[in-house]
Amino acid sequence: MALTGIQILKMLPKKNCGECDIPTCLAFAMKVAAGQAEIEACPYVSDEAKATIGEASAPPIRTIKIGAGDAQFTAGGETCQFRHEKRFENQTGLAVLIATDEDAASIDGKIKRANDFEYERVGVMMRNNLVAIKDKGGASLADMAKKVMEGAPKQAIILMSDNVESLKAGAEACGDNKPLLYGATGENAEAFVDLARQPVVQSV
Ligand code: SF4
Q: How far apart (Å, rounded) are the C-alpha atoms in residues 12 and 24?
């Protein structure tokens, strides 16, 4: 659970020395509580306090990196749900969805749009970041993943299926471009966890 500024202040050495670039320990504690300063900026805080404060202020969802190189997309690591509360650490991801049973013209069109799509929003260039591939029969996830990586090498990949074997084959086809896997249910959760522990997988 997040700590308040006063709770953090109690764990600080209270030297008011300003070495953290903030004039007082109270002001520093308030900034740490608001996520605007890192506890490491105080050279005098104990390791025990660092661990306690660091754990309490860690994002509820860890940062995950999907894909690799030019295709890498970073998500998670956020401590607020709405932008007006603070700020988002990572850019919102845009994705196109391709089902494995779509015809070739539709798939080629979506791959082209994934490559070409971009627009400027309040000074920030947004582009398509991800291609989600949904297992619906027809082509295998693995074959579709290879096709997408070849046609859209700057896109990270999401593989969607409740079939763990299909996901595993798809993840292996992605190689270093580790995909996000989607589709865990109450029935397949244990198999998903086993798959998530394998090195071919980024996250589930
Ligand atoms: S460096 Fe540490 S002790 Fe000094 S003012 Fe900042 S929080 Fe307080």
A: 11
**Residue 52 resides in a domain:** yes
Count the domains in the chain: 2
**Structural domain containing residue 24:** 5-56
Q: Does a structural domain hold residue 14? A: yes
Which residue is closest in CA terms to ligand 1's atom 7?
25
Place of tokens 């798939």: 107
pLDDT for the residue numbered 204: 46
Q: Which atom of ligand 1 is nearest to the CA of 19?
A: 1
Instruction: Identify whether 184 is part of a domain.
Output: yes
Rg (CA), the chain: 22
| Helices of type H across the chain | 5-10, 25-33, 47-56, 104-116, 141-151, 164-174, 189-196
How much is the pLDDT for 90?
Answer: 83
Alpha carbon of 54 to ligand 1 centroid (Å):
16
% of the chain exceeding 90 in pLDDT = 65
The pLDDT tens digits for 163-193 are: 999 999 999 999 999 999 999 999 999 999 8
Same domain for 30 and 111, yes or no, is: no
Same domain, 101 and 182: yes
Report helix, strand and coil shares of the chain as percent, to nearest 5.
40, 15, 45
Instruction: Give the total residue count for the chain.
Output: 204
